Amino acid sequence: MENKPSSNFLKNIVNEDLKSGKVDHIITRFPPEPNGYLHIGHAKSIILNFELADEFKGKTNLRFDDTNPVKEDTEYVESIKEDVLWLGYEWDNLFFASDYFEEMYNRAVLLIKKGMAYVCDSTAEEIRKMRGSLIEVGQKSPYRDRSAEENLSLFERMRKGEFKDGQKVLRAKIDMASPNINMRDPVLYRIAHATHHNTGDKWCIYPMYDFAHPLEDAIEGVTHSICTMEFEDHRPLYDWVIRECEMEEIPHQYEFARLNITNTVMSKRKLKQLVDEHVVDGWDDPRMPTISGLRRRGYTPEAIRSFAREIGVAKADSVVDSKMLEFFIREDLKLKAPRTMAVLEPLKVVITNYPEDQVEMLEAEINSENPEMGTRQIPFSREIYIEQDDFMENPPAKYFRLFPGNEVRLKNAYFIKCNNIVKDQSGKVIELHCTYDPETRSGSGFTGRKVKGTIHWVNAAQAVSAEFRLYEPLILDQDEDDESSFIEHINPQSLEIVQGFVEPNIKGSKPQDKFQFFRHGYFNVDPISSKQEKLVFNRIVSLKSSFQLTK
Ligand code: ATP
Ligand code: MG
Predict the structure, then answer these.
(1) Residue whose CA lies nearest to ligand 1 atom number 10
(2) Chosen domain end from 462, 494, 521
(3) 548 lies in a domain?
(4) Which CATH number belongs to the domain containing residue 447 in this structure?
(5) Are 63 and 29 in contact (CB under 8 A)?
(6) Which of 66, 39, 57, 96 is nearest to 228 (CA)?
(7) 328 three-state secondary structure
(8) Does residue 262 belong to any structural domain of this protein?
(9) What does the pLDDT average to over 3-30?
(10) Which ligand has the minimum distance to the alpha carbon of residue 65?
(11) Ligand 1 mean position to 120 CA, how many Å?
(12) Domain check: are 74 and 190 in the same one?
């Protein structure tokens, strides 16, 4: 069951703005740059923007902030749309910042005419050096006092492609002595001779984020423009652009703390590096914190939404324990996922006193916590598989599973007792010979004696072979003062693949079907690798967390 959206400071702001008459409607936007796949941090922003507007009967735009042609691609546009829809949100409008390039250009011309922007020939390096620091004012560019006519002509020639990349930029003329470095004549436009995924070769000058973003918001009539804390110091520039470009609609920027999760990298740049360097199989590798990776792993939109609501929205930075995300997928699947038995690392057991050609059907609930899901039939006969580590030849004290002479309960079936061990030449145990007690059948009400261990099994004749992919965190935790690259903290054991068996009743499983395998956790049928002849399961999450989250 999903939790309800909770209150947060942004809702209070919107409420106040509506009450005071500052606005009479709400428009929010989710503005991804199509330069990578969305991750769980973006999910927080999506859920926040859509639910905020929804609560006040407003609208939310999906807007691609596609102002940097070099890194952007339609593959990313498509994946982002798919992910937002999958999370359960439908945008009211789909926009591309690149559709506003002409208007942005005209607004830049307006700034030039007002003497508030100029073309600067300094190199990127010179501009950076002359910007000053927190304790040092910046130096004025030698090109700062060019006339409006000269600037207009140069800017037009920049657009026409007369200059090379980096040769000239357009800068706002604000204040080189401002205590806020963002206000020290920031660059508004740069030259990039690159093909844009949407506008092709029409443009060779592109607006910078700080200039483009406020204009995009204003053009769309966005009322509350919500971004992460690192843009707080950019807000004066945001307001400057809106004011000096004489935009009719006036949006306001509000910041919240970005989502961080323990042992999880969450920057598109780093995630792209993992993909490009083949550390993972792609953006949708089930170990990735991308929406597509989580989806393939078996996470549900319900679980992600509940997680996002639980962590809430605040201004203070924090790191959320990855166990919390796991908690919500368990919660979501607890009553939904059919339960079944799977043997991940099989060991054959022959029940020597069971009739050779007999097969009986045992009945068990599909989900013991949700009886409405009904029952399933489980075949049982002379040969079964159990888990290799449910047997020990020389067990330590308090080992209650199978060992020579010990009796255990087979889940949903009978008690069995181990009598003999068969080993191969290397001394490895390859088969157990057990006897069963027909009196002890599950559900028969047998109370004659008790056993301490219950183990799961799959009937050998009907067992469906399957591959299981077991995941651990991709990145090991790093101390805060550890400066080494995250690449050095990749967990070499993030994926383990084993070959085993599942119960025959899940033979026809389809991609994305989810199960709880007794004692092993929740699993998802992999949507890409799984085939009817060979099922492949991703472990979404174990029943209890097995991983130490901090070193
Ligand atoms: P990254 O830093 O991972 O590359 P980004 O901020 O550059 O992400 P954008 O495509 O610009 O990615 O982000 C779209 C929206 O998602 C922005 O409003 C941004 O603030 C928000 N966002 C990105 N990362 C997070 C996060 N970890 N938590 C919350 N919101 C985020
Ligand atoms: Mg960004």
Answers:
(1) 32
(2) 462
(3) no
(4) 2.40.240.10
(5) yes
(6) 39
(7) helix
(8) no
(9) 93
(10) 1
(11) 30
(12) yes
Please identify, by atom number, the ligand 1 atom nearest to the C-alpha of residue 46: 16
In the predicted model, what is the mean pLDDT of residues 247-260?
97
What global pTM score does this model have?
0.94
Taking the alpha carbons at both ends of the chain, their separation in whole angstroms is 33
Over range 469-476, report the average pLDDT: 94
Please tell me whether residues 47 and 131 are part of one structural domain: yes
DSSP E strands: which ranges in 438-534? 454-455, 457-459, 464-471, 495-502, 514-517, 521-525
CATH number at residue 523: 1.10.1160.10
Tell me the CA–centroid distance for residue 33 and ligand 2, in Å.
Answer: 6
Kindly state the tokens that stand for 152: 């207009």
CA 229 to ligand 1 center in whole angstroms: 11
Least confident of 106-120, 188-202, 478-492, 508-522: 478-492
Residues contacting 550, CB < 8 A, separation 6+: 262, 477
The yes-or-no verdict on residue 545 having pLDDT over 80 is no
| 129 and 187 housed in the same domain | yes
Catalytic residue status for 268: yes
For ligand 1, atom 9: residue with the closest CA:
32
117 and 27 in a common domain: yes
User: What average pLDDT does this structure show over 525-538?
Assistant: 95
Q: Which two tokens stand for residue 444?
A: 């028969």
Task: Report the domain count for the chain.
Answer: 3
The residue-averaged pLDDT of 302-308 equals 97
Nearest CA to ligand 1 atom 29: 258
CATH number for position 75 = 3.40.50.620
- Here the tokens at position 513 are 């079907």
Query: Catalytic: 258?
Result: yes
Say which of 81, 140, 258, 334 is annotated catalytic.
258
* 339 pLDDT above the threshold of 50: yes
Contacts of 497 (CB under 8 A, 6+ apart): 467, 468, 469, 470
Q: Which of 225, 256, 287 is the last residue of a domain?
A: 256
Write down the H helix ranges in 221-365.
235-244, 268-276, 291-297, 301-311, 322-334
Tokens 């400071």, residue located: 9
Same domain, 128 and 66: yes
Structure tokens at 59: 């609208």
- Alpha-helical segments (H) within 194-321: 209-220, 235-244, 268-276, 291-297, 301-311
- Ligand 1 site residues (CB inside 6 A) read 31-33, 41-42, 44-45, 227-228, 258-259, 266-269
Q: Which domain holds residue 136?
A: 9-256
Per-state percent for the chain, helix, strand, coil, to nearest 5: 30, 25, 45
Domain-located, residue 281: yes
Split at pLDDT 50, 70, 90, the class of 548 is very low
- Which residue is associated with the tokens 């597509």? 292
Q: Are residues 313 and 241 in the same domain?
A: no
Catalytic entry in 2, 11, 33, 103? 33
Q: Which atom of ligand 1 is nearest to the CA of 258?
A: 28
Residue 551 lies in a domain: no
Instruction: Tokens for 345, please give them.
Output: 């690392």
* Active-site pick, 173, 190, 268, 305: 268
What is the pairing mode between strands 360-365 and 375-380?
Answer: antiparallel
Residues 488 and 412 in one domain: no
Half-sphere exposure of 3 (CA within 13 A, CB side): 16
Residues 83 and 223 in one domain: yes
